[in-house]
Design goal:
The complex is a heterodimer of chains A (193) and B (167). In chain A, strand 3 and strand 4 form a beta hairpin. Chain A has 3 helices and 12 strands; from the N terminus they run H-E-E-E-E-H-E-E-E-E-E-E-E-E-H. Chain A is 20% helix and 47% strand. In chain A, strands 1, 2, 3, 4, 5, 6, 7, 8, 9, 10, 11 and 12 form a 12-stranded antiparallel β-sheet that branches. With 193 residues, chain A is of the alpha+beta class. With 167 residues, chain B is mainly β. Chain B has a single domain, classed as lipopolysaccharide transport protein A fold (Sandwich), CATH 2.60.450. Helices cover 8% and strands 49% of the residues of chain B. A 7-stranded antiparallel β-sheet of chain B has the order 1-2-3-4-5-6-7. The longest helix of chain B has 14 residues. The chains are: A alpha+beta (193), B mainly beta (167). At the A-B interface, strand 1, strand 2, strand 3 and helix 2 of A face strand 6 and strand 7 of B.
Chain lengths: 193, 167
């Protein structure tokens, strides 16, 4: 009886602390690398060698070199009356180069998670137009197939749509069409008796 | 006696003046008779450094302990080995920007640089940016922090969130 009570308290305590910790984890983006330079005035973060960006449950990015511009925070500037550039306090731009690999995690049907793999030699994100431009053998793989571009693949984060620059190729997985109505239509052929 | 002299000097340094950089090392009272002062540990060491033109506070160093790294014969050593460093940088309006903390560090008050091969943390309260790593070099002249190993930066996801998609 006492054991049960202790166990129950332990579970409650674990839940009590685990939930805020999880929420806190999802609110944070972690950038890791071997080397970095932070330029205070411009708000430039330059990381290189084994760069990894992780936003829990949203995306994982690895590359050789990453340059992010995150100017002075707007909130602090407001309290002090300092003038800062428009759009400051948020990520302004991000350029990842060298073996760029990105994994996007998207909520799928029935509580599943769909993983989208994107790769290329360079990925650029601009906050102004909110698009991710993938160049240098750009490739995006989803559960249903792969899109291979020659020049650039552009992912619009606002509309969640994809477009391309230059020729591209789409490879669909054969099992995607297996149960499709396209190939399982009724025909007018006489029924076998 | 010499320890007291050092404490007095640190007291002067704490006040922090724009002219400090230009100040020539002061000679000991009786250089011929007295031997070179033994480096003493100063507790609660701190220094605020101002911009020579505007006079605004640029950077503030403080630590639990500090000792002159080199004895150059002057009363105002430029290079200090500090324990429990707290380095605060300030914006143009003198509001706090980044705070860097390191268990051990070497500070050059003339160039206003700080470096350590050991661990450190840097954070900015305004937007919750947190940075940790091993081995750093703070270059005040170029306003940059160079980290040589195991960099980890944490930023709030809200800083990179996109605008809501149009319906």
């Amino acid at each position: 009886m006492i054991r049960h009570s202790i166990l129950l308290r332990w579970i409650l305590l674990t839940l009590l602390f685990a939930v805020p910790a999880q929420a806190q984890l999802q609110d944070r983006i972690q950038l890791t690398a071997t080397n970095a330079v932070l330029e205070f005035q411009e708000g430039v973060y330059h990381l290189w060698d084994h760069v990894r960006v992780e936003s829990s449950g949203v995306l994982t990015l690895t590359c050789d070199d990453l340059r992010a511009v995150l100017p002075q925070d707007k909130a602090a500037a407001a309290t002090t009356g300092a003038t800062v550039a428009s759009g400051s306090g948020r990520l302004q731009s991000l350029v990842a180069t060298g073996n760029v690999r990105i994994q996007f995690f998207q909520a799928g049907a029935g509580g599943t998670t769909n993983v989208v793999h994107a790769s290329g030699e360079k990925a650029e994100y601009g906050a102004a137009d909110e698009v991710l431009i993938l160049t240098g053998n750009p490739r995006i793989e989803t559960g249903s197939g792969t899109m291979v571009g020659t020049e650039a693949l552009i992912y619009d984060l606002k509309s969640r749509s994809m477009r391309n620059r230059g020729p591209y190729r789409i490879e669909l997985r054969s099992d995607v069409l297996r149960n499709s109505v396209l190939f399982n239509r009724g025909t007018n052929a006489p029924k076998s008796r | 006696m010499f320890r007291r002299t050092h404490i007095f000097v640190a007291g002067l340094v704490l006040i922090g003046s724009p002219a400090m950089e230009a100040q020539a090392p002061t000679k000991p009272a009786s250089p011929a008779a007295a031997p070179a002062p033994a480096p003493g540990i100063i507790r609660n060491w701190g220094i605020s450094l101002r911009d020579g033109t505007s006079g605004r506070v640029q950077v503030r160093f403080s630590s639990s302990e500090a000792a002159p790294a080199k004895t150059e014969g002057g009363l105002m050593p430029a290079v200090w080995d500090v324990t429990g460093l707290r380095l605060e940088t300030f914006r143009a309006d003198e509001s706090a920007d980044f705070t860097i903390e390191a268990p051990a560090c070497r500070v050059n008050v003339t160039t206003r640089d700080a470096a350590s091969p050991g661990p450190f943390t840097a954070h900015r309260d305004g937007d919750g940016i947190l940075m940790t790593g091993t081995g750093f070099n703070f270059d005040n002249g170029r306003q940059r922090l160079v980290v040589s190993n195991d960099v980890r930066i944490e930023i709030r996801a809200s800083l990179v969130k996109t605008s809501p998609s149009p319906k």
